Amino acid sequence: MFELIRSISIDTEKGRASGEAFVPADHPLFADHFPGHPLLPGSLILELAAQIAGPLAEESAHANSPIERWAILGMVRDARFLRPVFLPATLVINAEISRSQESSINTNVTVTSEGERVMQAELVLMLLETAPEWSKAIEARNSRLARWREAS
Amino acid sequence: MSARDTHAEVVTLVRQTLALPETEPISPPQLFFYDLGFTSMDLLDLLFRLEQHFQIEIPEGTIYHLARGDLAEAEFAEDAVLTEAGRQRLMDLLFDTPRELFPPRIHATTLPRFCTVGAITRLVDHKLVAKTCSN
Predict the structure, then answer these.
(1) Within its chain, how far is the Cα of A51 from the centroid?
(2) Which CATH number is correct for B3-130, 1.20.58.220, 1.10.10.10, 1.10.1200.10, 3.30.565.10?
(3) Number of folded domains in chain A?
(4) Out of B48, B59, B61, closest to residue A77 by CB
């Protein structure tokens, strides 16, 4: 699903990131959700939010420590789905760090579509130390981030 | 706030964390990981709930720092593994955890898994007293 994110900008000093995602109506993932009335599932809104919050957590952790970390979504707290997102849709995702610890970073995320807030939640990103065998995945991540950054 | 009140509130938050019914008995000697089936994510969730409910901060490494006390870092742990003195300090802090549960080598990141409900209640009480003193 990384292909749905269009852009990202990260400000580690302020602990914030924002990004944009475009979800087309004819994406095969939504063929059955629902036929003729494509609706973005809440779980995927969370996933898109995590794709913006994750790099924020990784870069923030890296700014404070030489060890490179990989952020994975560990917990979703107080998620509220405020409006349905009918497709196609452009989503604006904002993430802000609310708590930073050595092994986890909490972010408050909000997702808006057409100027209306559609989801808000607290995402807890768990920080794993990267291992040498992850080099290909890290390379892919860095390339993806560079592309998203260029588009912002 | 009395210790008994704190315990009742902690128990409510533990039940919420595990989505347990109010009828589910939870007592001070129960161990989070061994008796209640907590995972590390459950414990993190509970800590967030405790912080929010009691308006306190329980940063990562709290058990470690409380157990270490005034012991020098090098005397407490080497390469993130507790020394014998460190292990003894941990067992003193968590006095209601059965001694046979503490392995000879205890990694510093695993300390919360030895906590009982009673130990977390004491931790909350400790934080509440510290908060009152700082106000």
Answers:
(1) 2
(2) 1.10.1200.10
(3) 1
(4) B48
